[in-house]
Amino acid sequence: MDRVKINETKRKLRSLKKLEIKIRRVDAGLVWDDFFGLRYPADAVAAMDKAAYKRVVEEYFYRVYYKLYAEGGARFGTYDPELLSRLGLPPDADASGVKARFRELAKLYHPDNHGDGAAFAQMMDDYDALVKK
Protein backbone atom coordinates (compact mmCIF):
# COMPACT_ATOMS: atom_id res chain seq x y z
CA MET A 1 0.00 0.00 0.00
CA ASP A 2 1.21 3.46 -0.87
CA ARG A 3 2.60 5.20 2.26
CA VAL A 4 1.31 8.59 1.05
CA LYS A 5 -2.24 7.26 0.74
CA ILE A 6 -2.09 5.71 4.21
CA ASN A 7 -0.85 8.99 5.71
CA GLU A 8 -3.60 10.92 3.93
CA THR A 9 -6.17 8.43 5.23
CA LYS A 10 -4.83 8.78 8.77
CA ARG A 11 -5.16 12.57 8.47
CA LYS A 12 -8.79 12.20 7.33
CA LEU A 13 -9.55 9.79 10.18
CA ARG A 14 -8.01 12.16 12.73
CA SER A 15 -10.26 14.92 11.43
CA LEU A 16 -13.26 12.62 11.99
CA LYS A 17 -12.07 12.06 15.56
CA LYS A 18 -11.82 15.83 16.16
CA LEU A 19 -15.32 16.26 14.74
CA GLU A 20 -16.71 13.59 17.08
CA ILE A 21 -15.09 15.38 20.05
CA LYS A 22 -16.79 18.62 18.96
CA ILE A 23 -20.16 16.94 18.49
CA ARG A 24 -20.20 14.89 21.69
CA ARG A 25 -17.96 17.17 23.82
CA VAL A 26 -16.01 14.25 25.29
CA ASP A 27 -12.44 13.00 24.94
CA ALA A 28 -12.94 9.57 26.47
CA GLY A 29 -15.18 6.77 25.30
CA LEU A 30 -15.18 7.84 21.67
CA VAL A 31 -16.90 5.75 19.04
CA TRP A 32 -13.85 6.50 16.90
CA ASP A 33 -11.53 4.48 19.17
CA ASP A 34 -13.40 1.22 18.70
CA PHE A 35 -14.58 1.84 15.19
CA PHE A 36 -11.33 2.86 13.51
CA GLY A 37 -8.99 1.25 16.02
CA LEU A 38 -10.47 -2.23 15.91
CA ARG A 39 -13.02 -2.54 13.15
CA TYR A 40 -11.50 -0.47 10.34
CA PRO A 41 -7.77 0.23 10.81
CA ALA A 42 -6.22 2.99 8.68
CA ASP A 43 -4.52 0.63 6.22
CA ALA A 44 -7.82 -1.17 5.56
CA VAL A 45 -9.62 2.14 5.04
CA ALA A 46 -6.86 3.36 2.71
CA ALA A 47 -7.32 0.27 0.54
CA MET A 48 -11.07 0.90 0.09
CA ASP A 49 -12.60 2.38 -3.01
CA LYS A 50 -14.60 5.60 -2.76
CA ALA A 51 -18.00 3.89 -2.34
CA ALA A 52 -16.77 1.58 0.42
CA TYR A 53 -15.11 4.51 2.21
CA LYS A 54 -18.37 6.46 2.04
CA ARG A 55 -20.30 3.53 3.57
CA VAL A 56 -17.76 3.26 6.41
CA VAL A 57 -17.99 6.99 7.19
CA GLU A 58 -21.81 6.84 7.10
CA GLU A 59 -21.81 3.90 9.49
CA TYR A 60 -19.38 5.72 11.77
CA PHE A 61 -21.55 8.85 11.96
CA TYR A 62 -24.65 6.75 12.48
CA ARG A 63 -22.94 5.26 15.54
CA VAL A 64 -21.73 8.67 16.76
CA TYR A 65 -25.19 10.20 16.60
CA TYR A 66 -26.82 7.12 18.10
CA LYS A 67 -24.41 7.36 21.04
CA LEU A 68 -25.01 11.12 21.34
CA TYR A 69 -28.77 10.71 21.49
CA ALA A 70 -28.57 7.68 23.79
CA GLU A 71 -26.35 9.62 26.21
CA GLY A 72 -28.98 12.35 26.24
CA GLY A 73 -31.70 9.82 27.04
CA ALA A 74 -33.41 10.20 23.68
CA ARG A 75 -35.19 7.30 22.01
CA PHE A 76 -35.81 8.07 18.39
CA GLY A 77 -36.88 4.83 16.78
CA THR A 78 -33.55 3.43 15.63
CA TYR A 79 -31.78 0.32 16.76
CA ASP A 80 -28.42 0.02 18.49
CA PRO A 81 -25.90 -0.16 15.63
CA GLU A 82 -23.63 -2.52 17.59
CA LEU A 83 -26.43 -5.08 17.98
CA LEU A 84 -27.36 -4.70 14.32
CA SER A 85 -23.75 -5.31 13.37
CA ARG A 86 -23.65 -8.51 15.39
CA LEU A 87 -26.71 -9.73 13.50
CA GLY A 88 -25.06 -8.82 10.20
CA LEU A 89 -27.41 -5.93 9.44
CA PRO A 90 -26.67 -2.39 8.24
CA PRO A 91 -27.05 0.45 10.77
CA ASP A 92 -30.21 1.73 9.07
CA ALA A 93 -32.09 -1.58 9.20
CA ASP A 94 -35.83 -1.38 9.82
CA ALA A 95 -38.11 -3.66 11.86
CA SER A 96 -38.93 -5.95 8.94
CA GLY A 97 -35.22 -6.35 8.13
CA VAL A 98 -34.42 -7.19 11.75
CA LYS A 99 -37.22 -9.74 11.89
CA ALA A 100 -36.22 -11.38 8.60
CA ARG A 101 -32.56 -11.61 9.64
CA PHE A 102 -33.55 -13.04 13.02
CA ARG A 103 -35.56 -15.80 11.35
CA GLU A 104 -32.70 -16.54 8.98
CA LEU A 105 -30.17 -16.82 11.82
CA ALA A 106 -32.58 -18.80 14.02
CA LYS A 107 -32.83 -21.48 11.34
CA LEU A 108 -29.06 -21.53 11.00
CA TYR A 109 -28.10 -21.60 14.71
CA HIS A 110 -31.01 -23.45 16.34
CA PRO A 111 -29.73 -26.48 18.27
CA ASP A 112 -32.55 -28.65 16.87
CA ASN A 113 -31.02 -28.12 13.42
CA HIS A 114 -27.54 -29.07 14.68
CA GLY A 115 -26.59 -25.40 15.05
CA ASP A 116 -24.34 -23.73 17.56
CA GLY A 117 -26.25 -23.37 20.85
CA ALA A 118 -24.01 -20.60 22.20
CA ALA A 119 -24.35 -18.57 18.99
CA PHE A 120 -28.12 -19.13 19.11
CA ALA A 121 -28.32 -17.88 22.71
CA GLN A 122 -26.24 -14.77 21.85
CA MET A 123 -28.40 -14.10 18.81
CA MET A 124 -31.55 -14.41 20.93
CA ASP A 125 -30.15 -11.97 23.51
CA ASP A 126 -29.26 -9.47 20.78
CA TYR A 127 -32.69 -9.77 19.18
CA ASP A 128 -34.45 -9.38 22.54
CA ALA A 129 -32.41 -6.24 23.28
CA LEU A 130 -33.38 -4.81 19.90
CA VAL A 131 -37.12 -5.42 20.12
CA LYS A 132 -37.60 -4.57 23.83
CA LYS A 133 -37.06 -0.84 23.44
How would you sum up this structure in a few lines?
By secondary structure, the chain is mainly α. Helices cover 71% and strands 0% of the residues. Helix 1 (3-24) packs antiparallel against helix 2 and helix 6 (95-109) runs antiparallel to helix 7.
Account of the 3D structure:
There is one protein chain. With about 130 residues, the chain is mainly α. The chain has 2 domains: about 5-70, no CATH class; about 80-130, DnaJ domain (Helix Hairpins). About 70% of the residues lie in helices and about 0% in strands. It has helices at about 5-25, 30-40, 40-45, 50-70, 80-85, 95-110, 115-130. The longest helix has 22 residues, at about 5-25. The mean pLDDT is about 85.
Question: What percentage of residues falls in helices of 4 or more residues?
Answer: over 70%
Radius of gyration: 17 Å
Shape: globular
Q: Which regions contain 5 or more consecutive residues with pLDDT less than 50?
A: none
Number of domains: 2
Q: What's the end-to-end separation, in Å?
A: 44 Å
Mean pLDDT: 86
Summarize the main sheet.
Answer: none
Count helical runs. 7
The tally of strands reads 0
Q: Which H/E pattern describes the elements?
A: HHHHHHH
Beta-strand share of residues: under 5%
